[in-house]
Amino acid sequence: MSANESIVNLSQIQEKPIHLAKYMYVLEDTNHQIEFQDLKLNVSKYPFHQNPNAKEAFNFSYSKSTYWLKVKIVNPYDHEYSSSLVVSYPRLKTLDLYFETNEGMKFIPSGYAVAAMDRPYPSRNFVFPIVFPRNTTSTIYLKVKSPNAINLPIQLWKQKSYDRHEIDDHVLQAIYFGMTLAMIVFNLFVFFILRDISYLLYVLVVLSSAIAIATHNGIASEYLWNNSPWLDQYAINLLISVVLILFLIFMRTLLQTKKVLPRFDRVNWLLILIQFLLPIIYIINFDLIIKWLVLSHTITSLWILIIGVLCSFKRQRIAYFFLLAFAFLFLALIISTLRALGYIPTNVFTMEGPQYGSAAEMMLLAFALADRYNFIIKEKEIAENNVKINLEKSNLELEEKVKERTFKLNQTLSVLRRDLFVAKKIQENSISVDEKLLEQLNFVFKYLPVSEVGGDFFDITHLKDSRFRILVADATGHGVHAAMITMAIKGLYDPIKEFELTPSKVMEIFNEEFMDNFVSLNSLLTAIIIDIHFEEKTIQFASAGHPSAVLLQNGKLKLLAKTGRMIGLKKQTHYENIELKFESGNRLFIFTDGVYEAFNQNDEEFGEEKLHALFVNTTQLSLSEVEEELLKSLQNFQNGQDRQDDLTILGFDL
């Protein structure tokens, strides 16, 4: 080992990962003849070298070579160290890892040529769970080959930190695609009311963009197709062509370019034809066309931007919105293209730029359509004022149209209010507690949704003898969408809640059923199932990423922590079953995160520590008084701020 050789020390890893590119050594195999054993036996024949320009990632652009990467990592601790090596770029066909320690060598194949179910870790990125032996220096080799652009953002995470990061990432993805779905549904609704083709074209642009983003960031490979190397290789550029075709058509309709810029309209059709024909040739001969196709995407995007500028010079009000909207997407696409071609480095900004640009473009185009509708109304009013002879008739017609639309909107609003009232009653009935249970159990509960309906749900079931089963669940978000998920929870849970199985097995069945029936909703939920056996004085529980329930024993807290990941992330998830003993006089509190995720005017969180302290300091009060004290404390803490999330808490005297 050279004295100047870069070595990664695991003590450097904190909550954030280490970017390994600046520590790694690279070997390019242009003939695809080098095997791992050759590297080990002929070290001097195959000299690795460092890339001084690599900071967060390697970028080899479109290359036919095979690349070998090597890094040494030392574990200075007296215990094994669990970590995750993550390559956050989903379009690598071959990505094989060789892990060499003093205990031997381990080979882990990956890349999109390997089916998702056969990879070492299910994720939209390529993740290698690695356990480093104590007090040793290990060597990691990566073998990389792909017909797509070879970008390698390689990170080394602490295992627990990456698990948390992945949950946060899924939540952010759910927010983006949830917003996309909301835009699609709303504008489709407007299209059916107004019959304006612009709204339908907007829906198609947003839908195709969302699918392209899902393909770009690996979501599509994880959830839409998990064993299709062909789609992983070809889909992203095909989808970008589809997006650009739809955008060109949308631009012609929205900006009326045939009328405003007639000389340029033929160029629009020529670019549409190019974006239709090039992908066909691209499928036939990938290596020959790929760079030309990527270049055509850039040229077409630039042309759309130029048309937006020209229409802005024509003082088209809607062109200002269109230009600003597409500028975000154009910038993101240019950055992505330059990264793919190897002209700029690969990092978080250049990788995630298209998704942020897509979100900004989607919102601004929605404003453009709204402004267009307002402009049409004003244009009609000006035309009617100019036609003085028919002024009275036009006013009457306009008044009738306004009344008719107002009537329709009032009808729609009335139906929505009625449906919301019915949904509220249905949800209240679904979480009502049987009076017999109130007599058998000494407990209290509080359920406070943010709006008319919420995303929290709980159920208490008497299994037999002195055994009771409690479920508390929390769907992401709140309002009508989250309330619909709670109805789904009830429908799935009711048939299985009385099974003579452990809580963990019931949770696994529940997760399987949810993934089979509702994965298309892009929703996640946390849940905890607790079995209380009063004769044996035992508690068994399984928690799917749910906030830790609190068991109070002689003034001390025992937390019922999560035993598995959230519901809706992955099928065939295993949940650990944990059993605890309790004594008479102990207390159990089960709640959702809305109890402690309350913020005041300074954006400070109430937090779990204050909640736990309140439980400890109120042991002399009754359960009802504890809940009243909690609500009072939250109200004083928020100081007039509205609650941001649904609140549910159950308290039991054991």
From TrEMBL:
> Per its UniProt entry, which superkingdom is the organism in?
Bacteria
- PPM-type phosphatase domain sequence ranges: 438-654
Ranges annotated as spanning the membrane: 174-194, 199-219, 234-255, 267-284, 290-311, 318-341
What keywords are annotated for this sequence in UniProt?
A: Hydrolase, Membrane, Transmembrane, Transmembrane helix
Asked whether the UniProt record includes Oxidoreductase among its keywords, one would answer: no
| SMART domains named among the record's database cross-references | PP2C_SIG (SM00331)
Tell whether Transmembrane helix is among the UniProt keywords: yes
For this protein, the record's InterPro entries field holds:
7TMR_DISM_rcpt_extracell_dom1 (IPR011623), 7TMR_DISM_rcpt_extracell_dom2 (IPR011622), Bact_Sigma-Reg (IPR052016), PPM-type-like_dom_sf (IPR036457), PPM-type_phosphatase-like_dom (IPR001932)
Gene Ontology MF terms in the entry: phosphatase activity
Q: Which Pfam families match?
A: 7TMR-DISM_7TM, 7TMR-DISMED2, SpoIIE
Coiled-coil residue spans = none
Q: Which SUPFAM superfamilies match?
A: PP2C-like
Family annotation (PANTHER family) = STAGE II SPORULATION PROTEIN E, STAGE II SPORULATION PROTEIN E-RELATED
Protein name per the record:
Serine phosphatase RsbU
Organism whose genome encodes this protein: Leptospira ellinghausenii
